[in-house]
Design goal:
Blueprint: H1 3-20, E1 24-31, E2 36-42, H2 51-70, E3 81-84, H3 88-100, E4 104-107, E5 120-121, E6 129-137, H4 141-152, E7 156-165, H5 170-175, E8 180-186, H6 187-196, H7 202-222
Parallel strand pairs: 3-4, 3-6, 6-7, 7-8
Antiparallel strand pairs: 1-2, 4-5
Length: about 220
């Protein structure tokens, strides 16, 4: 059996769970920091309502990371610490840290405003490596802020993993600061799967896909 088959099934399972939880909605939504309007809204934080689902998410992430580290080209660097991005990413990171038996830490919100020293909760040593964990990546601002603060504290950051990549620039922004971003599911993959299984109607699917394509083109022009 192809080792990636289990990973693919895990992605489909995640899409189904998010749908069942009502974490995927369609309409007209304003996206936080960006203030952009989107026809689709995803709230992975609802996973915490189902402990068994949160536990399986952690197991899938752990398996994904172990496979990536075992590959010949080392798609993920070995890490000593799991760093959650508050608030949504911290729940996922906590579950992953328990699953992987790896120390957890996080940068306190507002730490970037303090130029004196980063405020990091947890125990760490300069020279250790952390992987950043978040639930959702949009523009990548929170992920980059977290990487910056950890690096200021002497912690190496080479990789970040998220449950969902909205494909709105986060990956490129992280690459620009030397961090590889890995996603369990991209927005295109999520929408295509839901449409193919009859959960998502044609109109909402086409509207959301057009939005993703426009966002990708806009980011390419900006870059």
């Amino acid at each position: 059996m192809n080792p990636d088959d289990g990973s693919q099934r895990g992605r489909f399972w995640l899409a189904d769970v998010l749908w069942q939880l009502g974490a995927i909605q369609f309409g007209d939504f304003s996206l936080g920091r960006t203030a952009r309007h989107s026809p689709v809204y995803v709230n992975p934080k609802l996973i915490i309502a189902r402990p068994e689902a949160l536990s399986r998410v952690a197991a899938l992430l752990d398996e994904e990371l172990r496979m990536a580290m075992a590959r010949r080209n080392k798609q993920v660097a070995a890490f000593d610490l799991v760093a959650g991005v508050p608030i949504g990413g911290l729940h996922i990171a906590t579950a992953l840290a328990l699953q992987a038996q790896t120390p957890l830490l996080y940068v306190r919100p507002g730490a970037a405003e303090d130029e004196e020293r980063p405020h990091i909760e947890g125990i760490y040593r300069p020279g250790q490596t952390a992987i950043i964990v978040d639930d959702l990546a949009t523009g990548g601002g929170s992920l980059v802020d977290t990487a910056d603060q950890l690096r200021r504290a002497g912690v190496f950051v080479r990789d970040a993993i998220v449950l969902i990549d909205r494909e709105q620039g986060a990956q490129r922004r992280l690459e620009s600061v030397g961090v590889r971003m890995h996603a369990m599911v991209t927005m295109e993959m999520l929408l295509t799967y839901l449409h193919s299984t009859g959960k998502l109607n044609d109109e909402d699917y086409r509207r959301a896909m057009r939005y993703i394509e426009r966002e990708g083109e806009a980011r390419s022009e900006f870059d």
